[in-house]
Amino acid sequence: MSELVGAIDQGTSSTRFMIFDGDGAVVAMDQQEHSQIFPRPGWVEHDPVEIWERTTSVIERALAGAGITVSELAAVGITNQRETTVLWDRKTGEPVANAIVWQDTRTADLCTELAGEAGVERYRSRTGLPLATYFSGPKVRWLLDTHDLGDRARRGELAFGTIDSWLAWNLTGLHVTDVTNASRTLLMDLVTTTWDSDLALEIGVPTHILPEIVSSVGEIGECHGPLEGVPLAAMLGDQQAALFGQACFAPGEAKNTYGTGNFMLMNTGNQPVTSGSGLLSTVGYRVGGQETVYALEGSIAVTGSLIHWLRDNLGIITTAEDVEDLAASVEDNGDVYFVPAFSGLFAPYWRPDARGVIVGLTRFANKGHIARAALEAAAYQSADVLQAMTTDSGVELSELRVDGGMTTNGALMQFQADLLGVDVVRPVVAETTALGAAYGAGLAVGVWPGLDEIRGLWAEDTRWSPQMPDGERARLHARWRRAVERSLDWA
Predict the structure, then answer these.
(1) Which fold has domain 4-238?
(2) Alpha carbon distance 272, 270 (integer Å)
(3) What's the rounded Cα separation, in Å, for the pair 405 and 225?
(4) Neighbours of 315 (CB within 10 A)
(5) Which of 82, 100, 29 has its CA nearest to residue 235?
(6) Angle formed by the axes of helices 238-245 and 432-445, to 10°?
(7) CA distance 163 to 84
(8) What is the reported pTM?
(9) 419-470: pLDDT as tens digits
(10) Cis before 348 (ω within 30)
């Protein structure tokens, strides 16, 4: 059989299709951005039709670039931006509205209403999640209410899904989601990994519109259109795909992805670990009929997108890559700290009332200090999350595996190692979300016999070890915490 495996990596800002060989090496890749729609402050939308068109295009272009036909692919996997919510007509396949993106905060009042006297922890014991605008259950409720679609939903005329479901529907005609994406809806029981009808009733989402929950790894259906005849054999939310791609298959192993936001996940084994420190208990992955693997997650809303904000909103850089040189033009941050709470603060704070602040400005500060503070914000927020993860898990990490676009910035990775006090390790293939989806699909169809073989493919590229004195680390983190305090109670 062919050892070539494809992966659709549908992210917050772009879609790409990657082809990997049996050694986990990249054979071909194509990527295209899609529109970011901001109708009001705090609202973020995507056009689902545009996303599907981009998906079709990158598949065709990557296959052409590799010089292969679709019949040479053994399988394909999907990895996707999670929580982004699509509602579409089952008969026509047309979306009823733009997708509501995971960063969107329009459901803040609805979440407060649902929380009631029980507060944001109302559903945590069943879902592992706090009530927050981040998750997709309240988003679909908002769509149903705003567009007066409740009756149609109850009649089963509509379908709800996160982006994995939308792509799977267009590829196979099946209405499915995997267990990792389902765990981000506030509608799935974390222990049974099934839809909780009581939760759905309380949140106001008719069960008729929910997709079937399938394992993350396993043959789902045969594709049509741009991937005609190829088995769809894996679906994972992007951060769980990165955990899989980083071969974090043992409890206590962790990774941090630096993308639009930052997402740190730690494998906690076959039992969910309840967080007392502001982290999420979530599904890591499930292979076929095996036991579900769980994870602790620290989700950070704004890291890489802050660099785009410097480019697009302030205009102090021309390209995202320019930020590294601008930040390097100053010796240190000049006591300037940037808390990018554009959509509130996610883990470990969960403060929707927070808003972005730049503190410590003096006449000495210049755009280099602001650029440096923007980069360092990713490291500070990750340090907050790791501290919470250590508290919850009782595990002191010896190293943190990292991936994503920002890991090409060596100065940032060194600063991250200094702040964490542990080694930071980047693999040879740093874009591990697509790799994780490919590993899952290949595992399902026998390209790789098991997890041990996949683990054997992981290879270290660069390691950064801490060099900062403990006292300086503590001083900087304390200053960051003071900056965070000043971002609160704004909205």
Answers:
(1) Nucleotidyltransferase; domain 5 (3.30.420)
(2) 7
(3) 31
(4) 8
(5) 82
(6) 70
(7) 6
(8) 0.86
(9) 999 999 999 887 789 999 999 999 999 999 999 999 999 889 999 999 999 9
(10) yes
